Amino acid sequence: MILAPLLTELVSGNTPAQAFLDPRVALFLAFAYSLPLLLIRELSLRRRLSIAGVFLLGLAYGIVNEGLLAQTLLRYEHVPIDRFDRHVFVAGFNFSWAAVIVPWHAFFAVLFPLALVSAWFPSCAQQTWLSGRAFKFLAAIVVALMAFLSVVRKPHPQMLGCFLAIAALSSAAFLFRDRRSPLAERSFQRFHPFLFGLLGYPVYFLGSIILAARRAPALLFFAFVVLVLFALGKISRSYRFLIQPASPYLALGAYLSVSLFHLLAGVARRSPEDIVTAAILAAAFLFLGFAGKNGIPATAACGET
Fold it and tell me: Structural domain tally of the chain?
């Protein structure tokens, strides 16, 4: 519940560190990030979803966040990264921005936090944390809120389109079952997935920004995004970077890359708060990735401190 907003809003610099001290901000982020992540985790275990199934739920969550809540997917201008302003805007949707930020949420707000939690709490990584009644109650609340937002918020056609896309992706996720998979070799080198996460992120993210800034044709832009994501996924699958014990190091490398982008932005803006925050986070990701002989520490039992 704590990791979800910190590993997205704080690491990326979208929300300054001091804002987390505001109870209103903390409460909103808990509803926007923490509760959906908890439900996705529970659903993936109850339905035995594969990594592909969880990724589709992550895409659905990305539309919830950037479509129903922030509505950045509907912006012609004033997109969070202005290089995507006025680029591939069709039927009220900024598709170039959506092609980048929706998968971003699937990785950084869903897959990677779950990989870290599984590494830190291995004894209950495959256990559900909510009772059946609690899960159904919270899921009903989230679905009701999404339906409410899609009906009352304007523009109505685009909001309804977001809701339908969320429903389609969530339904498709159930086609990818059996999340049981063989563990990676215990003799693996944690440096390899860490470096892959560190370098893979700028290829995907910075490459998309450059193409959008140069107003690349839609076909070229989307071909680049799809091919890069496919290549990254193929390499991760071949080297088993997406499963334990390698996946948390892949996540830490990617988070380090995001924090370095945050650091560079802070230097460009001459923002001491951003510089200090990003530097601390980058040091923390390096420490977690390489401190100690055995790497990431894991608790002996669920909930043990």
Answer: 1
247 is a domain residue: yes
Read off the tokens for 283. 């040091």
Q: What is the pLDDT of residue 290?
A: 86
Question: Is 54 a residue whose pLDDT tops 60?
Answer: yes
Answer whether 155's CB lies under 8 Å from 25's CB.
no
DSSP H or E stretch at residue 76: none
Asked if the structure places residue 231 within a domain, the reply is yes
Q: What is the pTM of this model?
A: 0.92
Hunting for tokens 């043990």 — which residue is that?
304
Q: What is the C-alpha separation between 223 and 221, in angstroms, rounded? A: 5
273 within domain boundaries: yes
1 vs 41: CA distance, rounded Å: 11
Q: Which residue range forms the structural domain that includes residue 149?
A: 3-177+190-290
Q: Can you say whether the dihedral through the CA atoms of 188, 287, 261, 245 is positive or negative?
A: positive
Least confident of 1-10, 139-148, 261-270: 1-10
Return the sign of the alpha-carbon dihedral for residues 297, 300, 303, 305. negative
In a domain, 303, yes or no: no
Long-range contacts of 260-265, Cβ-Cβ distance < 8 Å, separation of 24 or more = 261/12, 261/13, 261/202, 261/205, 262/11, 262/12, 262/13, 265/13
Summarised one tens digit per residue, pLDDT across range 243-255 is: 889 999 999 999 9
Q: State pLDDT tens for residues 127-183.
A: 999 999 999 999 999 999 999 999 999 999 999 999 999 999 999 999 998 755 545
Peptide bond into 155 cis (omega under 30): yes
- Looking at residue 180, what DSSP letter applies? -
